[in-house]
Amino acid sequence: MLTEECHLNPHLEAVGIEVVDTDLGERIVQLRQEPPSHIVLPAIHIKKAEVGEVFHQHLGTDAGADDPDYLTEAARQHLREKFCAADVGITGVNFAVAETGEFVVCTNEGNADLGTSLPPVHIACMGIEKLIPRQRDLGVFLRLLARSATGQPITTYSSHFRGPRSGCELHIILVDNGRSSILGREDFRRSLNCIRCGACMNTCPVYRRSGGHSYGTTVPGPIGSILAPARDPGQHHSLPFACSLCGSCTDVCPVKIDLHHQLLTMRSEVKKAGHLPILKRWGMWAMGILLRRNWLYGFLGSVGRKLLPLMPRPLIYNRMNMWGRQRELPPTPVKSFRQLYKERYERK
Amino acid sequence: MNANSSTDRVKILNAIRQHKVADVELPDLNAGWIEYDSPVDQFIQSLESVGGKVVRLDSLDQLGSKLETLESFSTAKVRCSLMEGQGSPSFDLDQVDDPHDLKDIDFALLAAEFGVAENGAVWMTDEGLRHRAVFFIAQHLGVLLSATQIVSNMHQAYQRLESSTAFGLFMSGPSKTADIEQSLVIGAHGARSLTLFLLP
Description:
By secondary structure, chain A is of the alpha/beta class. Chain A has helices at about 1-5, 10-15, 25-30, 50-60, 70-85, 110-115, 140-150, 180-185, 200-205, 205-210, 220-230, 235, 250, 260-270, 280-290, 295-305, 315, 335-345, and strands at about 90, 95, 105, 120-125, 130, 155-160, 170-175.
């Protein structure tokens, strides 16, 4: 995922190097020329019939075949050839250990392992936040990662790299890309604890409805809605607002990132940085006045209840009403909640 | 190292030093982790739950005949073994110069240093091994482990892990994927099956 964050593949392809993603999900989205939509299950948005179609096109599987066993077998055969033909293997890093200088790569498919044990060069790319102090801390982290990502007790392969194969090369690239500046921001520092398990997106009601592509970032979901605007608030300012602040992400996060608090704080950061669109700014300002004044709220409510049903449709559903683009307002109630509550209270 | 990467390194390190975070005590990892009454039973259960098979042996002498009962072994044309005198290998791994020549291995017999009961993983290293590819490239794997070498949890595992080999791994069952509509498929890129032979 780090190489996606850095747009490494397009760069390598531009200089004439063929890049083959070897994780099955990543290969599927690569063949479809799409970005991944989830950090653990990159092709989670794709139906098996669509996988069958893309494999039929590129790998020559039978037309209409959509059995996951059959398709996985086809990918295995296809990628074995690629593994054997590769000159360089690039992997990410799940954890790197300061004490020993080793790093660990976790996969279930064995792609990182096969991809680095055949070619003579292994390049490992890691964000600087992947460092943990001691080797024995891995006992906690390997368990946390697999349990929170897929519910397994540990990933099938947890490979510990401490040096190159004899006669071969091993390079480790440490990437900052905005991480050190997050380190300096007290409110968001904890987001660097992220181990990329994907638990927050699996539980997020917004992610589950809208899917990973709607975020327009490499890491989607709650954690992505913090990391992306922290790095580039100009481009990703809307993400922290696409959140109901339900707090489910904070509940499930295995490394205890206060996700929904950070998302709320990020909203004011976005405003302070001047990235809030003017309509939203005015809307929030008006809502602020309205919600602070009890009488005004009650008055406008009663006016709205009488006026709305009489108003011509274009006056309500127009460009200003973004909410109403795909939705109908509910029928206007005759009485307000306050009136109903009062009547009920007086009846008793 | 070229000049460019060293300036990037300095840049990153300076940026981190600028935002030095307050020190915190390292956590004590000697907390009360789960220990099983029978780590062996738990190990078998864990390994079977991740798609591995376990065959118990009374002694090493039984290995040959038990291997023959495995279809993945008996039908294997190309076999290799990391166990001296076991697994009737069809070629000598040490004589292979290029790991790409291992691509046709049907069955590989490996030996594990120890196993972990909580997750069914075994620890193996490339000590004395020319090609670590053998762990991943073989179609099917047999792994030999002594029941006396099973620890309860990952903390005990890292406590006894002293090897300083270039490569080591925890392997828990055969390779798998769920990338197509979240259906579990055993046999992704690595081994299609893993049979663990457990010595007393």
